[in-house]
Amino acid sequence: MIRQIGVLTGGGDCPGLNAVIRAVVKTTLTQYGWRVSGIEDGFEGLVFNHTRPLKLEDVRGLLPRGGTILGTTNRGNPFSMRVPRGDHFETRDVSDQVVANFRALELDALIVIGGDGSLKIAHELIAKGLPIVGVPKTIDNDLMGTDITFGFDTALATATDAIDKLHTTAESHHRIMIVEVMGRNAGWIALEAGIAGSADAILIPEIPFRYEPLEAMIALRDRTGRKFSIIVVAEGALPVGGAEVYQAPARAGQLARLGGIGAEVALELERRTDREARTLVLGHLQRGGSPSAFDRLLATRFGAAAVHLIANRDFGKMVALHGWRVASFPIADAISKLKRVPPDGELVRTARDMGIVFGDETIERG
Amino acid sequence: MIRQIGVLTGGGDCPGLNAVIRAVVKTTLTQYGWRVSGIEDGFEGLVFNHTRPLKLEDVRGLLPRGGTILGTTNRGNPFSMRVPRGDHFETRDVSDQVVANFRALELDALIVIGGDGSLKIAHELIAKGLPIVGVPKTIDNDLMGTDITFGFDTALATATDAIDKLHTTAESHHRIMIVEVMGRNAGWIALEAGIAGSADAILIPEIPFRYEPLEAMIALRDRTGRKFSIIVVAEGALPVGGAEVYQAPARAGQLARLGGIGAEVALELERRTDREARTLVLGHLQRGGSPSAFDRLLATRFGAAAVHLIANRDFGKMVALHGWRVASFPIADAISKLKRVPPDGELVRTARDMGIVFGDETIERG
Amino acid sequence: MIRQIGVLTGGGDCPGLNAVIRAVVKTTLTQYGWRVSGIEDGFEGLVFNHTRPLKLEDVRGLLPRGGTILGTTNRGNPFSMRVPRGDHFETRDVSDQVVANFRALELDALIVIGGDGSLKIAHELIAKGLPIVGVPKTIDNDLMGTDITFGFDTALATATDAIDKLHTTAESHHRIMIVEVMGRNAGWIALEAGIAGSADAILIPEIPFRYEPLEAMIALRDRTGRKFSIIVVAEGALPVGGAEVYQAPARAGQLARLGGIGAEVALELERRTDREARTLVLGHLQRGGSPSAFDRLLATRFGAAAVHLIANRDFGKMVALHGWRVASFPIADAISKLKRVPPDGELVRTARDMGIVFGDETIERG
Amino acid sequence: MIRQIGVLTGGGDCPGLNAVIRAVVKTTLTQYGWRVSGIEDGFEGLVFNHTRPLKLEDVRGLLPRGGTILGTTNRGNPFSMRVPRGDHFETRDVSDQVVANFRALELDALIVIGGDGSLKIAHELIAKGLPIVGVPKTIDNDLMGTDITFGFDTALATATDAIDKLHTTAESHHRIMIVEVMGRNAGWIALEAGIAGSADAILIPEIPFRYEPLEAMIALRDRTGRKFSIIVVAEGALPVGGAEVYQAPARAGQLARLGGIGAEVALELERRTDREARTLVLGHLQRGGSPSAFDRLLATRFGAAAVHLIANRDFGKMVALHGWRVASFPIADAISKLKRVPPDGELVRTARDMGIVFGDETIERG
Asked: What is the pTM for the complete model shown?
C-alpha cells in the first residue's frame, strides 16, 4: 500500500522540471491522498536525507517557472559518490545508504525525473529493489523510448530566436554568423532550429563535415547577391576524420582553448574565404526561461501519468510520448543507447530540399 | 509529365502558410526543376485567372512571416460563387471554368493549402479530374487524418501568453477573468492553453457546462485565500441544453449582442457571485504573428512532402503528421468528420488531475 | 523620527507595481532600518486594518512579476466608501477612521502608489495631516508632473505586438483590422503603438475624427495595391461632434452594446467601403505580463526614491521622471489636470510624416 | 535648393537602423518631394559610387526589421581606407574622392546614421564642405549630446531576458552565472540590465572591481540559503589595477584566450569559492532582433527630424533626444568625449539600494 512517494530531479536543468513536480504533487494529493516528499539535489538528497514535504501551496505558481525547486546536480551518483571521510574526500558506493534511507524516510515509491545518467542510476536502484518510475528529461532529445520530452521545444524556440536575431546582423555586415547550440551526441536542436531559422548550413555529430562544401555554399551565395551566411553547429559536430584527430590530447586542448567547434569553424572559414566570421555560443540560455506552452502541457501530462503508473504499481517504467499519446516504456531499454538523427531521414532530406548544406555534399561554386 | 504546378491558400489565415509556400517553391525549383504558379486569393484565383509565377527570390525571408503572400478568402467556393452578371451579382457553379482555367494555365498539378472547407472543394475538383494534393491547415486542430498541423502551436502559445498576462491582473483585483479563444466545434486550443496557462476552469464545445460547478469552484478558492479565477472558454462552448436554446433566433441574437459566450459567462458569474468578472476575446490575435519554431518546421516539412507526393503522382491525398512522421492521408477521409476532444481522454483527465473544472462535475463548496 | 512606513497600491493593475513594492522594502530595510507595513487592497486596507509586515523574503523574485502582491481596487475611496451598516450598505466618509488607523498602526509615513484617483485621495489625506509621498502610476501616461511612469512601456509593447500580429492577417485577407487600445482621456498608447506598429490611421480623444479621411485613405491604398488597412483606436476616441452625440443616453447605450468605439468604426467602415472590417479589443492584456526592462528599472528607481523622500521628510510630493532624471513633484499639482497628446506636437507630426491619418485631414482618393 | 539627399549607415549593426531609413525616405518623398539616394556599406558607398535610389516601395515593411538594408561596415573611413592599387592594397586618404563623388551623384545633403566613429568622419567631411546632418547610433548609449538613442532599449531587453533565463538555472544548480554584455567603455547595458534582471553584482568599466566583495557577497548569500549568484559584466570591466596589468601584451593575450573578462571572473570565483561558475557571452545577440516599440518610435522620430533639419539647412548637427523631446546637437560636441556611467549617480545608488555589489565596497561575510 502506498502512503508516501518521493520525487527528485537529476542532471542538467531543463524547462518544465517544475511543471512535472507540480503535476506530481497535485495528482498525488488530490487524486490519491498520499503524501509527497521532495528530495533535494537529485540522488544526493537520498544520501544525506535532505528532503521536505511538498504540499499544494508549495507548487502554486510553479507551472510557468523554469528550473527545479528541488535543486539538481550532475554529481550525485550514489554508486560512485565523492563523500567526506574524516578530513578528506573519497569516492565510494553509497547506494546501500540510499536504499536504507528510502526505507527510513517511509517512502513507498520514487519518481526520478532525469536523463540518461539519472535513469541509469534509477535502473541500478531498481535492481536493488526500489520501486521507481521515471520521467524522461533530455533537452537534447536524444533519449530512446519517447518521441520527445519536455524542455526540447523551449530550447528549440530559444535557439531559433537567436538565429532570427543574427540574420539581420549577418546580412547588414555581410558576415558569416555561426551559432553553436547544444547537442554533444545528437544534432536534434541544431537540425530543427537550423531548418526553422533558415540556416544555410547545419553541422551535426551524425554527419561529419568537410569545409569545402561550406566554402562552395558561401561562394555560391556571394555570386547571387547574398553576401552573408548563417551556420548552425551542434557542440558535438566534428569534421571528417575529426573523431580521431580531436582525441589527440594536443588537438582537444586546442579546440577547448578556441572555445569549441563553433569557434574553430569560424577561424577556418575566415581563413578560406574573405568574409568575417563571428561565433555565438548559446550555452545555458537554452536551458533557461519559462517553458513553452507545449512543454508545460507535456510536463504536466508526464507528471500526472507518473503518479498513475505508481498507482498501477507499474515500476521500472518511465512515462513516454509515443506519437501524441502518453505511454510508458521500460527504463532498461531507454538507457541502452542514444536516439540520434538519422542522416538519411525525412528531416535531413527536408533540410536539403531547402538548400541547407551539411558539409558532406559536393557543391559547385556556381 | 509535370512541368508546372499551382499552389493556393484557402480559408482563414494561419501562421505557417508562407512557410509552406516557401518550401513548395524551393523543393519544386531545386529538386524537380518544374515551374510554380502562385494562385491568388484561394480558388478565386482559378476562377479569375489571377496567378503569378513564383521564383526563389519571391520566397526569400518568407519563413518567419505570418500570413500568406498569395492572399486567401473564405468566400471562394467555385461550386457556389457570387459572380457578377451584367449589372448584378448571382451565385453560380463556376467549377467548369476552374477546370478549364487549370488546363489553360498549363498546370499539371495543384497544391491546395487549406482546411475542411478548402479540402472539400478540392475533393469535388478531384472528382472532376484535377490532379490535386492537399496540405491540411486548421488553427483549431479539428481536421481528421493528421495528428496536428501547423499554426496550432503558435495559436496555443499566443493564448497561453494571454492567460499568463491575465493571471496577475486577476489576482491583483480579485477578479474572475474569462478568456475566449478560438474553437467553434472543437476545444483543443481552450483545453491545451487552459492546462498550460493554469486555468481554473475550461469550457469546451465537447463538454456542455453548468454554472453551479463554476460557482462552487470560485467559492472553494475564496475559502482558501485565492480570491480570483481564470476561466478559458472556447467560442463554441455551450451550457447544458444550450445547443437547443441558442438555436432560437432571439437567444442567438442576444448572445451575439453580448459579444459571445465569454461575455455571457462573465455576466452570469457576476450575477451568481460577488466578484467582478472581465472578458477578453482573443480573436484574430491567434491567427497572427511569426510562426513558432515548431510550426515553421512542420510547415516546411509539409510543403516539401506535398511536392514529393506530386512527383509520385499520389493525387487525392493530403500530407499529414502521424505521430512525428510525415505521412499522407486520403482527402476524402479527412473531410468526412471533425476531430473533437474526447471528453474522457487523457488530456481532459490530466486537466481534472490538476483541479481544473469543466462545468460537468459536482463540487462541494468546501 | 521614523520607525515604520506603510505602502499601498491603488487603482488599476499595472506592470511594475510589484517592482516598486520590492524597491521600497529593500531600500527601507537595508538603507534605513525602518519596518515596512504592506496595506492590502489600496485605501481599503487602512479602513479595515488589513496590513501585514513586509520583509526581504516577501519581496524575493518579485521584480519580474506583474500585478501587486498587496492587491488593489478601484472602489477604495475613504471619503466616499460603501461600508456595511447593520444589515445594509451605505456610502460614508470614513477618512477619520483612516487617520485614526494610521496612528494606531504606528505608521510614521505612507507611500501611495497610484494614479490620478489614488493621488487625489492622498492629497485629501495629506490635508488631514498624514505624511504621504506618492509614486505615480498610470498605464495611460496621462498624469501631469512626470514625463512617463512605469507600466506604459510594457503596455506599449503589448499593443505594438498585437498590431504586428494583425498585419499579416489583415494583408492575407485584404481586411481592415481595428485595434482598440486603452486611453479614455489621452491617446498616448494609441499614438505611440500606432507609429511603432506602422498603423495606417490612429484615432485619439485629442483629435476628433471624421470617416471621410479614413475612407479616402483606404481607397488610396487600394489603388496602390495595398488592399488592407490597420487602424488603432483609443477607447476614448470620438468622431467630430461625438462628445455631444455620445452623451445622449440612447447613443451611449448603443455604443456600449456595440462593444465600444472600435466596433462602431468597423461597422461604419464596412458600410462605407466594400472591405470586411474586424475589431480586436486589447483590454486587460495591456495591464498584464512581466514588466519590460525599462519599466522594471523605472519602478525600482521610483521605489527607492520614494523612501529617500521620506527620509528627507519631503512629504506631499510624488517621485517623478523629468527627462531621464528621477525628481519629485507636488501631488497637488499632479492631480490638477490630465496630460494629453498635443495635437500639433512633434509626435503627431511625425506620425503624419509617416503617412498616418488621424481623421481630421482632407485626403484625395488618388 | 535641395533636389536629392543621400543616406548611409555606418559602424556596427543596431536595431532601428531600417526604421530610420524608412522614416527618412517617407518624410523626404511625401513631405518635401526630393529624391533619396541610398548609399551602400557606409562611407565605402561614397568611395566606390555604390548607391541606389530609395522609393516608398523599398521601405515598406521595414519598420520592424532589424539590421540595415543599406549594409554597413566598420572599415569604411575614407580618410584612411584600404584600397586596391595595381596588384596590391594600400591605405590612403580618399576623402577628396568622396567629395567629388558627392557632387557627381548630384546630392544636395547627406544623412549619416552612425556612432562615434562615423560621426567623426562626418565631422571631417563637413570641414571639407559637405552639408551633413547626423543621426546618432550607439547600442552602448555612450554618445554625448543625446540622452539616449535607438537600439539601446532593444539591447537592454535582450540582455535582461538572458539574465531572467539564467536565474532559474543558476538557482537549480546552485551556481554562479556570469553574463558578459556589451560595453567596452561604458557600462550602461550592464548597469541597467543588471538592475532590471535582479543581478547580485554588476561590473562596469567605470568602477574597477576587487574580487573580495564578490566573494563576500557569495558567502553572505550562501549563509542565507541562496546558493547561487548572478553577475553581469560589461566587456570592458576591469579589476582594480587591471588597466595597467591588461595592457601588458602577455596578459592581454591571456584574457583574449580565456574568452574575455567574463571568463576570467568565472575562473577566479571558482578558485576562490567552492561553487561552479559558468559564463555566457551575449555578443551579437544584443545587436539583432526586431527593434522594441520604444526603439521603433525613436528611430522614426529621428529619421523624420533629420530630414526637417536638412529642410532648415541646419547642417553640422545631429538629431538628439533631450529629455523626451527631439532636439539637435552639434556633431563637433557629440564626438568630443564619451558619455560614461557616473559612479556616484542615482542609477548606481539605486542598484546599491537593491543590494547589488559593484566590487568596490567592503562587505562582511555575515
From this structure: 0.96
